[in-house]
Design a protein that fits this description.
Layout (H helix, E strand, L loop, with lengths): L1 H14 L3 H24 L5 H27 L9 H30 L12 H21 L3 H24 L6 H22 L3 H24 L4 H5 L25 H10 L2 E6 L1 H6 L2 H13 L3 E6 L9 H8 L7 E3 H4 L8 E5 L8 H4 L18 E6 L19 E5 L2 H17 L2
Parallel strand pairs: 1-2, 1-4, 2-3, 4-5, 5-6
Helix pairs in contact: 3-4, 3-6, 3-7, 4-5, 4-6, 4-7, 5-6, 7-8, 10-16, 12-16
Length: 436
């Protein structure tokens, strides 16, 4: 907020607008601010990824419109402009990046909101299609730079905005729901570079700097998250499957039977445990069960039990989503640990409580070299003395890989709706410790 406010103030000061223009700018900012505030106030914390994706699309659209408008304004002066080639290059690249960001963010929003199928849409020959779109965009840039006519320039900019928008759809549609956290960070990076192009064209140093910061930080975060999944960034962006460690053989067949427990049995296991690690996943977000879990943790801590959270880097639908959810519910920061900080503690832990997580706790990543998630760093919950897995069903996660921990002898399955189950656990614990 401070950065945006500073940017607006600096822009207004640099432009030194007339009263009429200032009134128009104020009206536009008031309208946009009102819409943004209204939307943000109505959004649940669990729906933040959709909000971020929607706002990214607006950044992309703004970049496209700004680049085209700036070309229209500057065209009469290009013959005498000392850096006309640079201006045209930035305008074209900004339009291209903005188009990919705009349509890609809309597809991401549709997948996250449930308007589109979260499964990857693998079009036949999609790599050739994307390659053709990229080649056409590069060819259009060559024509844009060489032909000085206004008609050709506008045709090239409008053409690349259409080509890049199609490419944004084909790229994002091919990415499955499990990779949405990386998609969000990549789109964040794209929006930063689009903003950087806008700042350059508008001769606004602050906007250029902020865009570069967003673009570079988004790229770094995307790389970090890909490392956390043992995947390469091109593999994710191009809708690939499997990790860099996946073998070529048949995945291991899981045999055995699972053990189911009820609320009362789960309460007894929690009562007997002195140390508990909770590993939440998207199921916790979807069920909005953070409040009963936070209250349950508070009560257990008051009884002298050591209760902590283990968060996987790609848990949820965007980076840090689970951290935000838990903070909103009042969970202390010092008991929320990252995967690398807590993994070595599982062997000494009495009970691991898995809530709505699957792929991020899947032991096949370590036990099956032919699994498509082989080599992916996961939370090693199965190494705890006892494990309770809370899920709706025994079904697979987004990666569509069976989870061997469901069938391990130290695992108990507590099946059902996460919100109802967490509410029941909270009530039973309160009754056990605080009702006399």
């Amino acid at each position: 907020m401070i950065g945006v406010a500073s940017g607006v103030a600096a822009t207004v000061g640099a432009l030194n607008p007339s009263p009429e223009v200032l009134a128009q700018m104020s009206a536009a900012m008031a309208m946009g601010g009102t819409i943004g505030l209204t939307v943000a106030k109505r959004i649940e914390i669990s729906d933040l990824p959709q909000l971020v994706a929607a706002f990214h699309s607006l950044v992309g659209l703004a970049a496209v419109l700004t680049c085209i408008a700036e070309y229209m304004i500057e065209y009469p002066h290009l013959d005498v402009h000392p850096s006309a080639s640079v201006l045209k290059t930035v305008a074209y690249l900004g339009t291209y990046i903005g188009g990919v960001t705009f349509s890609g963010s809309l597809v991401a929003y549709g997948k996250l909101q449930g308007l589109l199928n979260s499964a990857p849409l693998l079009l036949p020959g999609r790599h050739y299609l994307n390659g053709g779109l990229l080649a056409a965009s590069v060819g259009g840039m060559g024509l844009f730079m060489l032909d000085p006519s206004y008609t050709t320039g506008m045709a090239c900019l409008l053409g690349v905005s259409g080509l890049s928008s199609i490419m944004g759809v084909t790229l994002t549609a091919a990415i499955g729901g499990a990779d949405m956290p990386v998609v969000i960070t990549v789109l964040n990076s794209y929006s930063g570079w689009a903003l950087c192009a806008e700042g350059f064209l508008l001769d606004n140093n602050l906007m250029t700097i902020v865009g570069a910061l967003i673009g570079s930080s988004g790229a770094i975060l995307s790389y970090i998250m890909c490392v956390a999944m043992n995947r390469s960034l091109p593999n994710v962006i191009l809708g690939g499957f499997g990790t860099s460690s996946t073998g070529g053989g048949k995945p291991m067949e899981i045999v055995g039977t699972h053990t189911e427990v009820g609320i009362d049995q789960a309460i007894e296991m929690i009562k007997e445990a002195n140390s508990v690690i909770i590993t939440p996943g998207w199921g916790l977000c979807a069920a909005k069960a953070q409040y009963p879990i936070a209250d349950m943790v508070k009560m257990l801590n008051e009884q002298g039990k050591k209760v902590r959270f283990g968060i996987h880097p790609v848990a949820g639908r965007m980076p840090g989503q689970l951290n935000v959810l838990l903070a909103e519910a009042g969970v202390p920061y010092d008991v929320v640990l990252e995967m690398d900080e807590i993994n070595e503690d599982f062997p000494e832990t009495d009970l691991a409580l898995v809530i709505g997580a699957n792929d991020t706790v899947n032991s096949a990543a370590q036990e099956d070299p032919n699994s498509i998630i082989a080599g992916m760093p996961v939370l090693e919950v199965w190494k705890a003395k006892q494990v309770i897995v809370m899920k709706r069903t025994l079904g697979v996660g987004y990666a569509a890989v069976d989870n061997p921990i469901f069938y391990k002898p130290n695992t108990s399955m507590l099946l059902g709706d996460a919100k109802k189950t967490c509410d029941a656990l909270q009530g039973k614990i309160r009754e056990m410790y605080y009702t006399h």
